[in-house]
Amino acid sequence: MALLQWLKECSKPALFVVTIFLVVVLKFLMKEKLKKRKLNLPPSPAKLPIIGNLHQLGNMPHISLRGLAKKYGPIIFLQLGEIPTVVISSAGLAKEVLKTHDLVLSSRPQLFSAKHLLYGCTDIAFAPYGAYWRNIRKICILELLSAKRVHWYSFAREEEVARLIRRIAESYPGITNLSSMIALYANDVLCRIALGRDFS
Asked: Can you tell me which family this protein belongs to (predicted)?
């Protein structure tokens, strides 16, 4: 109530708006500082509030990351938008991370889009590592990639190759974009094998 009374009496409302803005920014900075202390993160360059460290990657991220590794060391924490990322720049550390701690780090990030568009991350690409993921991976390998299934689906590949050759022959007088035709071929084969029909 006193705040509203002060606002009515205040002759400079812009000062009030600036004060509120500064309080919000300070609260955000304090929250980030406390979060960083709790997590014991690797060294990190300064970041911007919304985009994080994306502005520091530039047009050639591999060169920018090399420069950051020289400055901050072989393991760096970057905030890429809203996604926290740890960058490993040495072969020894990469081996330790990928071999020794592979089970701890092998899960996938739970992205907002994947949760809402892909049935709560229940597909093979976005499911978190665990018993469910191992089970759907085993089903995929048995039903799609076993030697028996690969041989059984050879008719679909042969028909799609014949269709690809027909498409190339039909476009003979003009310019042929083989990249798009081969991508369409791969898509048709995958759809016929996995879904039972093609969608082209």
From this structure: Belongs to the cytochrome P450 family.
Residues in CB range of 41: below 8 A, 6 or more apart = 77
Strand blocks (E) in 4-131:
75-80, 83-88
Taking only the tens of pLDDT, the chain with its 200 residues reads 565 666 566 666 666 677 777 777 777 777 766 665 667 888 999 988 888 899 999 899 999 999 999 999 999 999 988 888 899 999 999 888 888 888 777 777 777 888 888 888 888 888 888 899 999 999 988 888 888 888 888 998 999 999 999 999 998 888 888 999 999 999 999 888 888 887 77
CA distance 200 to 194: 15
- Residue by residue, DSSP assigns 17-40 as HHHHHHHHHHHHHHHHHHHHHHHT
Q: Exposed, middle or buried, 76 (CB in 10 Å: 0-12/13-18/19+)?
A: buried
- The CA distance from 64 to 56, in Å, is 7
- Both tokens assigned to 161: 């190759």
Give CA–CA dist 15/27, Å, rounded: 18
